[in-house]
Write a structure and sequence with these properties.
Structural class: alpha+beta
Oligomer: single chain
Strand order of the largest sheet: 4-3-2-1-5
Shape: elongated
Helix content: 40-55%
Distance between the termini: 78 Å
Order of helices and strands: HHHHEEEEE
Number of domains: 2
Length: 144
Amino acid sequence: MDLNLVMGTTEQSRMQAQANAFNQALNSTTSGNQQLGRDDFLKILLTQLQNQDPSNPMEDKEFIAQMAQFSSLEQMTNMAQGFQELNSVLSSSRALGVLGRTVEVLAGSDVVQGTVSAVTQGATPTITVNDRVFDYADIQRILQ
């Protein structure tokens, strides 16, 4: 079907401007991380619905399939967030396990040996050895 017969010049210009703006926003959004998120998916779906041909609207099957894809994307996003939280809790738990133990910690090019006197929990737990604070990940060996 020829778009010139269905749409006037004004509608074509408006749709072309919307498509260009959307493509530019999409390129600037994904250039850093190369991943589409739920907001991007909703923008695409909304643009698709706004610019569909009124005489031939999107079929129910297509819309339901896209909504199912969005639901799956939302569930995967929630699972990824849950795994990040679980990883944080596990890291903090492992850090608590070295409290009072003697460890060797990498401090630049030096190795510091001492007893862990304090642990700070969080996404990146820290330990205190010989009154110096280190990341838990800097532990090279647990001696005792």
